[in-house]
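Homework help board

Subject: predicted structure for assignment chain

Our instructor gave us this sequence and asked us to write out the predicted structure in token form, then describe one feature. I got the tokens but I'm not sure how to describe them. Can anyone check?
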Amino acid sequence: MPSILMGAAAGAICYFACTTLKSKLKYDDSLDAFGVHGVGGVVGAMLTGVFATRAVNDMADGGPVGLIDGNVGLLAGQAVAVLVTIVYAMVVSLILLKLIDSVLGLRVEKDIEAQGLDLTQHGEDGYLFL
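My token output:
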């Protein structure tokens, strides 16, 4: 049952991130990688700390595993791991973006974008409406 709750929560929160949050923050993510993988990963990691139980992980000491069992420590550990991962991903992404921008550039010129990238960059029509 917890896996169904985790899936439903992640699905609803990812949907919110891909629709409402993206339009409010006005970030460009055409494939919704952040809304699905970033937000969904955080939700999954945090809910793992909530729903971890002895039925899934039989620890040798016999103590509580996750928040449902009464152990706040796992949830705190998951939160620290999520924060470290977010900081790491941001730093590495910024370094890579700066490197790519200095070598190739990150955006095409406005007139090229207006003509369409399929035609100007690949030499083919992306959408043929007849």
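Reply (TA_rk): Your tokens look well-formed. For the description, you could write something like this. Residues 2-119 form one domain. That's the kind of observation they're looking for.
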